[in-house]
Amino acid sequence: MGQQQLLARHMKALVGIEASALGYTTATVGLVGGIISGVAIINWGARKGYTHYVTSPKDLPLSMKTGLVQPMDQQESTKATISTICMDPMAFHLGLVLVPSLFGYMLSKALVPVIGVEIPAFCTALLFGFIVNAVMNKTHSDKYIDRGSISRISGTSTDFLMVSGIGSLQLGIVVKYAVPLIVVCVAGFLTNWLWFHFVGKHSSPKDWFERNMMVWGHACGVAATGVMLQRICDPELKSRGIEDSGIADLINRPIIVGLQVIPPVLMTSMATAGPHIVTWVCFAIVVAMGIVAYACKWWTPKSKVQTYSQTAVGKVEEMPISRNDQGKAA
Questions:
Q1: Global model pTM greater than 0.90
Q2: What was the pLDDT predicted at 29?
Q3: CA distance 10 to 274
């Protein structure tokens, strides 16, 4: 979703406010549509026998069905790493997120008169975030950072981002460009489905479906969408798809940052040739990655896809009963 927003901001300088509104619209469609389509794909996969850890929506924990965690299953999501005498722990962690963001925004605006192009504030904020992270690691103060608190701030920001994105939709512009907008969105979902079906299916010898639900959610919206979808089809996170995505993200991060910075700058400075350069370079990179993956046997398109029957799922690995279900059984 962040990439669409960055692109929308830079296109605003080229073709006006309408491009910005369309950018936010596609971002919202990707986020909401990724969740809805992801749930539909999980149901389809369960019927086909592709899911390893659930065979039907009835197997999902009660918290997944209702969104509410029963009192006996509730857990603490954060912990206090500093004394409340000096500052509230959540305010401390919120400052760790907001201060780099503020400096990144100021740097983005300050560079415009110098270089003539506005670098996305997200990228400059990410730079300051790396600096803060390096300083805290160097001074060994990283032990006072609670990852749970950071995750809660990230999740809250994502929720507000989705709601504000839906609320900022300009229906008049959406209706005006309805046909090209539908074509772009359908093409995006179709591309993700083709990748899911023909690439992802033959890239993981075990638990390919659960691992690729993380990829589907990330490709359609944000990483949080992928995490949510994977927890639906793999409630105990036994497929380790989230861990794999975290490791891959370390390698992908420089590429992602480059894709967030270079295309908007090219399309701003080279209005005619910029989009063509970006499009064909991205196509060439994807083709090159496919050749390398095939040569290294990371992608085996002729491999047989493993399926799981309902009986086999129970034999291979029994799903643990939650405390809530134990209470019901008693």
A1: no
A2: 85
A3: 12
The pLDDT of residue 64 is 67
Q: Whats the size of the chain, residue-wise? A: 330
Q: Dig out the tokens for 11 from the structure.
A: 């296109």
Tens digits of residue pLDDT in 250-276 = 677 677 777 777 887 777 777 778 888
**CA dist., res. 112 & res. 115, Å (int):** 6
Task: Give CA separation, 103 vs 8, 89, 96, 132, 306, in Å.
Answer: 22, 22, 12, 11, 50
Strand extents, DSSP E, the chain: none
Tell me the HSE value of 52 on the side-chain side, using a 13 A CA sphere: 23
What the block records as the tokens of 152 is: 């809660």
Distance from C-alpha of 19 to C-alpha of 8, rounded to nearest angstrom: 6
Locate the domains of the chain by residue range. Answer: 2-76+163-272+300-329, 80-145
First to last CA, the chain: 45
What's the farthest any 2 CA atoms get from each other in the chain?
A: 70
CB burial of residue 143 (10 Å; 0-12, 13-18, 19+): exposed
How many Å apart are CA 199 and CA 231, to the nearest integer? 22
